[in-house]
Amino acid sequence: MAAVVLIGAQWGDEGKGKITDYLAEKADMVVRYQGGNNAGHTVVINNQIFKLHLIPSGIFYPDKLCIIGNGLVIDPKVLLDELDYLQSKGIFTGNLRISGNAHVIMPYHRMLDALEEEFKGEQKLGTTKRGIGPAYKDKASRSGIRIMDLLDKNEFSRKLAYNLKEKNLILTKIYGHEELNYSELLQEYLEYAEKIKKYVADTSLIVNQYLEEGKKVLFEGAQGTLLDLDHGTYPYVTSSNPIAGGACVGSGVGPTKINKILGVVKSYTTRVGEGPFPTELTESMGELIRNRGGEFGTTTGRPRRCGWLDTVILKYAVRINGISDIAFTKLDVLTGISPLKICTGYSYRGKMLTEFPMSLSVLAECEAVYEEMPGWQEDLTGITKFEELPTAARNYISRVEELLKVPVSILGVGPGRTKTIIRQKIF
Ligand code: IMP
């Protein structure tokens, strides 16, 4: 299989970084296709923790090409800081390529993200305030600035002048904020352009060339299915398409080229930001899972809301993404918890729903219906073969496979690269 898309099957934070890092070793190229530095990937290599927000986790392998596709919104300062950080740790970054069609996050995007959230009050979305939504808004309204515009001084000056004229009016007249200075911004961003330009390339061409040569390409989705702009729990979503279909749009590759869709599923559910969450655990069990699983945002440090595994959501994710294989992460976090609960349906006004509802107001009224399974006490972190897992852990996995009708091909039993059980090769 040459082209694999890896996506989050829940609300993000499924542990995709670790699985990507593991698969990147087998791949020739890793491609990010959407989002920006709202994402946060934690990778543990030789007990060293790396936190990345923008650059694909494949960067840790010097012989792989790492692509930031056209579907992303890039904050140039964050990108350059991340490159400096990696270089200071001795990581080679010369294998990074950035699409000229990706959009640029400007300071007014960050400001507007925060101001719009404040303006929304009770209706706020709980965004990461990194300017993601406002940058995608400009992309859709066709006034956005792309990386290739940034590299062309005349084009950039013209587009910045137009954008600032509009954004300064919004900042001052609507939000009573100070205006931004054109010359300072121009200077600052032209300096970024100078440092970024060596990485900029026609990435769609490069990815397709790799695929034609039969090389292995891993497409790495950020966030998760339920944060998808079209298919997630709108409006509590991000502004891009994290689902598998987004990989084609966000990297310039046709759907016929994709061979496998790997859905990353955490063995329980978490969510950051606002919005309904049927299996949420607000009492001590939620606290226990949060602390055990280290469920605090990589990007914002916010405590994540935690809950039981929800197979209604997962069935939906299998459908929307066409998931062919599952990577089941953080199984070790559940050690010592018994019984374990799996949500298999929702009770809504006396009716049983087994399909994820389209309407958010219906979802908000849904109560999770659970099946209980015995847990296990054994430490899983040293186990390398599925057969060596405690019977209760194997039963838990088998039940998930039965409910979702998709094989669990990879299992995560601890944070490090080696704490991974492979049942079925992905590449
Ligand atoms: P935005 O992407 O900053 O606009 O935030 C929109 C929603 O997506 C908020 O609920 C965020 O908490 C959520 N979100 C964005 N990125 C991530 C992520 O990487 N993991 C989990 N949630 C995220």
Structure at a glance:
The chain is of the alpha/beta class.
Describe the structure.
The chain is an alpha/beta fold and 427 residues long. It has 2 domains: 2-91 and 202-422, Alpha-Beta Complex (Adenylosuccinate Synthetase, Chain A, domain 3), CATH 3.90.170.10; 103-198, Adenylosuccinate Synthetase, subunit A, domain 2. The chain has 13 helices and 20 strands. Strands 9-7-5-2-10-1-11-15-19-20 form a 10-stranded mixed β-sheet, with helices on both faces. Strands 14, 16, 17 and 18 form a 4-stranded mixed β-sheet that branches. Strand 3 and strand 4 form a beta hairpin. Helix 3 (107-120) packs across helix 4 (132-140). The radius of gyration is 22 Å and the shape is globular. The protein binds inosinic acid.
CATH architecture annotation name of the largest domain: Alpha-Beta Complex
**Total number of domains:** 2
- Work out the number of β strands: 20
Tally of helical segments? 13
Mean pLDDT across the residues is 95
Biggest sheet statistics: 10 strands, mixed
Strand content: 15-25%
How far is the first residue's CA from the last residue's CA? 6 Å
Q: What is the CATH level 1 assignment of the largest domain?
A: Alpha Beta
Walk across the major sheet and give the strand order: 9-7-5-2-10-1-11-15-19-20
Structure ligands: inosinic acid
Cα-atom radius of gyration:
22 Å
